[in-house]
Each structure stands twice: as C-alpha cells, then as structure tokens.
Amino acid sequence: MAIRVLLVDDQPLLRTGFRMILEAEQDIAVVGEAGDGLQALDQVRALQPDVVLMDIRMPRMDGVEATRQITGPGRDGPAKVLVLTTFDLDEYVVEALRAGASGFLLKDAPANELVQAIRVVAAGEAMLAPSITRRLLDKYAGHLPSGDEPVPETLHTLTEREVEVLKLVARGLSNAEIAADLFVSETTVKTHVGHVLTKLGLRDRVQAAVYAYESGLVRPGAQ
C-alpha cells in the first residue's frame, strides 16, 4: 500500500514542489495539504496520513505545537512527523524532536533524500542524518551536560551492550550499521534497541538520541 503523506507548509509553492516530487513515486500518495498547524490537526484527523511533512514556522499554530498534538497522548492515528527546517531554525528542530517528531530534513535537500526520508519515517525508523545531527548538537553544546554531572540512575538499568547500542543510535547509525559495527545480527540490534527504549521509558530512536546527549552519555563532536 502507498504511504499516505500530508504536506504542511505555509508557502503554497513549496507544497506544490513537494507534491510533484512525491507523486512521481509509485509507493507514495499525497493525500492532503495544510497551511498552518491548526489545519494540519484537522487534516490528520480527517485523512489519517502515515507521514506528516511538517514546516516549523507557520501562522496560528507552529509546527512544534502541531507535532506535539499529533504525536502526543490521545492522538487520533499513527501519523509520524518529519520536520522540515533550515539551519537558522535549529533551536526549533530540537523542540520538535522533543515534541515527538520522528526526524528532520533540510528544505533544500535533494529530491531523492526527501523520498527516502518519507520511507524511513513511515517504516517506524528515525530520520537522523548523522551530519545534521552533529551540527545541531555541536551548536547547542553549551546547553548540554559537560560530562561531569552524575549519570542518571536510569542508565544503570542498561547492560553494557545496551549502552553501546544507545551510543551508536545517538550517532545516527541505522540497525544495519550498528550490527556491522558490533558484529551482531540486525535482529539482535533491534532487540537491544527495544530493551533500551523500554527500560528508559522512551518512545523511539529520536528520543533515545536526545536522551544520550542530555544525560552526558554522549558529548557533541565525540565519535
């Protein structure tokens, strides 16, 4: 079945461009558009999209609050949110990830990256491009733990292997890449990731990556 996508952006020309790119793919269907966050909420309820391509700065309701309502408790459907951004709005992207977005993409990304991002998010994975993630976290290094703070008690619930996996998730690696790095199967990695999310009370890989940095387990710029 085709991936159902809702386009949310206050610029009609951008929505038209995204629609043309996505509708050229046989496995993607654009089911609707919205020009602000309030319209997006109505469209999500009415159309039940799989993925919402979400702008950040919009009138009436911004993309952060819309994301929070779409992915939060009591949500009406399984929609995943993929945030669109430019580097001058990085601080809003961090808030969107905390609000429940499954990832982010630059507005000037090549068409093939947009298509791939839609597929990744629809499959339940996080769209965490390592290069973009690193630049974001480096920019906000001053607001993240220095590494001298006590390690959160919740981290002690993880096994050594699960800590290794969490660090690699925070670097933006996929299950396949983590499996190759640790010389284990993808199924084993998936199991470890599931245990990490359950033990830490996290929703997905995006929250796991944010947690790893905020807890001081991983520091910006570290490999």
From TrEMBL:
Q: Which SUPFAM superfamilies match?
A: C-terminal effector domain of the bipartite response regulators (SSF46894), CheY-like (SSF52172)
Q: Mind telling me what this protein is named?
A: Response regulator
Q: Name one Pfam family in it.
A: GerE
Could you tell me which residue ranges the HTH luxR-type domain spans?
A: 151-216
Where does the Response regulatory domain start and stop, copy by copy?
Answer: 4-122
Q: Which residues carry this modification: 4-aspartylphosphate?
A: D55
The entry's keywords:
DNA-binding, Phosphoprotein, Transcription, Transcription regulation
Quick check: keyword Transmembrane helix in the entry? no
Q: Which organism is it from?
A: Streptomyces xiangluensis
Highest rank taxon of the organism: Bacteria
Asked if Ubl conjugation is a keyword of the record, the answer is no
Q: Which InterPro entries match?
A: CheY-like_superfamily, NreC/VraR/RcsB-like_REC, Sig_transdc_resp-reg_C-effctor, Sig_transdc_resp-reg_receiver, Tscrpt_reg_LuxR_C, WalR-like
